[in-house]
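Supplementary notes for students who missed Thursday's class. We covered one full example, reproduced here. Read the sequence, then the structure, then the short commentary at the end.
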Amino acid sequence: MPFVGFCLLLGAFGIWLVLSSAGHQPPLAGFFGGVVVLVFTAFLLKGFFQVAPNEGQVMQLFGKYAGTVRTEGLRWTNPFFTRRRVSLRVRNFESGKLKVNDSDGNPIEIAAVVVWQVVDTAEAVFQVDDYENFVHIQSESALRQMAQNYPYDAHDDGKPSLRSHGEVINNHLRDEIQARLDKAGVSVIESRISHLAYAQEIAQAMLQRQQASAIVAARGRIVEGAVGMVAMALDSLRQQGVVELDEERKAAMVSNLLVVLCGDRATQPVVNAGTLYGG
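Structure (token representation):
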């Protein structure tokens, strides 16, 4: 701001020189001096620029990097400096849906949201041609690389998968992207999977596989419960002395109870009007 006042005073002085000598013929040296002062003042005014919050101005002097101004407000610098505005705000983008193969070789569709910010303006401007395009391309490359290291579904509890271990996957993705963007002066704040699905050509088959796995797991729980109920029934009959069963009849009773308990349809009762051993 003090330099604004200096430029105003210098411009007023130039105008005074021009006006004070304008009536003389031929023009006096003061007239030409005033013109020179006004031209020099206009040249100095070229050095003024504004810096907005969360913004940097990269300075160059004849192609040489001269520094970055980050202090917001009205600033003045050497008029010979060229300036480039670089945003330091937090930005984000969502990648397109990429088709890749997981670690099992299954084709999947995956997309991610990346939150990033420029932290080194010199590297962002001079290390890469277009740092925004660089961020997008390298993020998609890291997403492909990460997706190939994990299966879509977990086959055992010890190994993470894309679908079940979200925090582990997101942290790995962030590290992969950050390793690629360090050279561009960019910091990755957060990255997370925004879309995950099997590719269309195998989606129906994988859905049937998931349904079959769910059915097998459910049947296992049903059988486990049915066996426990049969054991409780036999123990109760023996303790209360309701009926004495030999091994053959126990086997028949166990078979009948398991059919009733494990069947997915309603059973039809058969009434035996004879004795326990037939007839």
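Commentary. The mean pLDDT is 79. The two ends are 116 Å apart (CA to CA). If anything here is unclear, bring it to office hours.
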